[in-house]
Amino acid sequence: MIILITGASHTGKTFLAQKLLEKYQYPVLSLDLLKMGLIRSGQTDLTATDDAKLTGYLWPIVREMIKTTIENKQNLIFEGCYIPFDWQKDFSSTHLSEIKYICLVMSKAYIIDNFQDIINYANIIEQRLDDNDFTSENAIRDNEHIFEQCQKYGLPYHLIDSKYDLNIGDL
User: What is the mean pLDDT of residues 138-144?
Assistant: First the structure.
């Protein structure tokens, strides 16, 4: 099985991936780690802040990794924000039956009421080196965009609204 975890920054993608790794023993591939490896090795001229361009650059690589993982009957969790909203078009029905998609979205009210907690938990799994541009306004804007895109493409999402609860049940 393939598990795709996506969502806006600071929604807990890496945290959820860690919890699923512990529960199912599936390895995790962080798209941020892949991104930084390609950037630091000189494989691309893109920078860490080129999010829109990075999705187009990384997705063909990740897409083929997903197909290969399924064909090899392996399990893998991919987590990161570089999964396009029209991702399903790139897979056959056989592939799609092996993919679980999880999109994390925080409501505006949750962000307003819990912004300091969001900041406090930002480094719970990984150390963020430069987080100065993360504001409540940016978080609200990004989460609203993610929510709109999930609705537009008919994608499932996990809404974090009144409390932070990532209990998504069994896969």
Answer: 96
Of 56, 51, 61, 145, residue with least CA distance to 103: 145
Q: Quote the Cα angle for 46-49-51, to 5°.
A: 80
Tokens 């493409």 -> residue: 153
Tokens (6 digits) for 89: 């078009």
Summarised one tens digit per residue, pLDDT across range 100-116 is 999 999 999 999 999 98
Long-range contacts of 61-67 (CB under 8 A, 24+ apart): 61/34, 62/31, 62/34, 63/87, 63/90, 63/91, 65/29, 66/2, 66/4, 66/91, 66/95, 66/99, 67/91, 67/95
Question: How far does Cα 130 stand from its chain's mean position?
Answer: 19
Residue 171 host element (H or E) = none
